[in-house]
Specification:
Helix content: under 10%
Structural class: mainly beta
Oligomer: single chain
Number of strands: 11
Shape: globular
Number of helices: 0
Radius of gyration: 13 Å
Length: 122
């Protein structure tokens, strides 16, 4: 059974940066796509970014393109989300999820972390 944990959240001013990490335990991320999601108060959860099993495919929410970068570490137990030029609209609880498949398939997110809070002030 895989466990997933997020880290790296915090409070920053607009224009600042944060690096979120998603760490696997119990087994590695090998062979699975991994995604980052966020949910702001009163809003629906949305996918921010996804990376496939090899790292050769990445997709981003339109509003974060050019500002956020997803990456996998070679050890296959950490997926990072580098967030630059943060905006107040990025304030949310951020979650990491592991897909049932090796590609970024919708609606097949199997393992979820508990979330990490990101707050961006203007």
């Amino acid at each position: 059974q895989m466990q997933v944990a997020e880290s790296g959240g915090g409070s920053v001013q607009a224009g600042g940066s944060l690096r979120l990490s998603c760490t696997a335990s119990g087994q590695t991320f090998h062979g699975y796509a991994v995604g980052w999601f966020r949910q702001a108060p009163g809003k629906q959860r949305e996918e921010v970014s996804c990376i496939n099993y090899s790292g050769g495919f990445k997709r981003y929410l339109d509003s974060v393109k050019g500002r956020f970068t997803i990456s996998r570490e070679d050890a296959m137990i950490v997926v990072n989300l580098q967030m630059d030029n943060l905006e107040p609209e990025d304030t949310a609880e951020y979650y990491c999820a592991v897909n049932e498949y090796d590609w970024c398939s919708d609606s097949t997110w199997r393992y979820w972390g508990q979330g990490t809070r990101v707050t961006v002030s203007s």
